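All the exercises in this workshop are built on plain-text protein records. A record pairs a protein's sequence with a compact description of its fold. Backbone structure tokens are a discrete shorthand for how the chain folds in space. Once this layout is familiar, the rest of the handout is easier to follow. As an example, a complete record with its sequence and its structure tokens follows.
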Amino acid sequence: MSTAEATVRRPVFVEILERLAAQRGARIETEPLYGYAGAVIDAVGRRHFFKGTHFDINRAGAAALARDKDYAGRFLAAAGLATPRGVLLHGPRRTVQLSLKNPLVAARLPDRAAAHAFAEEVGYPLFAKPNEGSEGDGVTRVGDAAGLDLALDALLALHDRVLVQQAVAGEDLRVVVLDGRVKAAFARRPLSVTGDGASPLSALIAARLAEFASDGKGARIAADDPRILSELAASGFTPDSIAEKGATIALLANANLSTGGSASDITDTLNPAAADAAIRAAAALGLRFAGVDLLAAPGAPPVVLEVNAAPGLAYFHRMGPQAAARVEAIYADLLDALLAS
């Protein structure tokens, strides 16, 4: 084994599963280089495959449906759940490809003009994001027509389909559901810095991102990421601004943990309406195991943002002993469900 291979640490969930599997007379086999993909093998040799946090517990069709944000939103709305209003845009490359097969359909695909028409109808701010993706990749909040064009330029250069959605207020929640039961819930907050009354925001941002590297998490976003600059501008700041001492300045509109967000465990105090919405959302997409992202505001039904068919729990596992125990209990239940299937 090379030095590079020897220093690669396997995912936390694999280490947890190996310990839990041994207690159940099963074992875990992974590909040797990164340990990222493999199988749970039970006592009689049956194999239950996984790649990353994608497990055999969810059927392929259901997982693919959840991955498509626009289609998933339509199924969620049909099930009576609140979802953000939005419009799906198709990039030039996709439109050209489809026009060769079905020009009539290609001619009807919504494009950039549809995004501006939608903005005029519902108003700003809006969110623009890849229609397929996870971990907050590419999610951008825009506050005006110029910002919308900038976001679409960046997104359509990389993605064939982009979803533009109306912004919804509320506390950002991630609820983990397994077989119709809530297993954990976390309130999430976006990446932010706290002003000290002296340092420019650029210095505070650099220091905050450096903390990730020192913790072994890696910098999941660059200090000059356009989304940070856009969010600062929306709040009336620039990288050179000096925030008041004690002021919390959000750097991103989304609260994904993979882009530096933070979280707190609210499993024991989760609002019943949010729990019900999460359970119904997983069921609406045919998922046994899911991470449901909600926005919850007082006096309003929870809004389902997205449903993840392969929720990652590594960040929550690092939050402390109580959260770690909760995550390991989830994986124990998940493993039992896999072995019983």
Remarks:
- The radius of gyration is 21 Å.
- The chain has 13 helices and 15 strands.
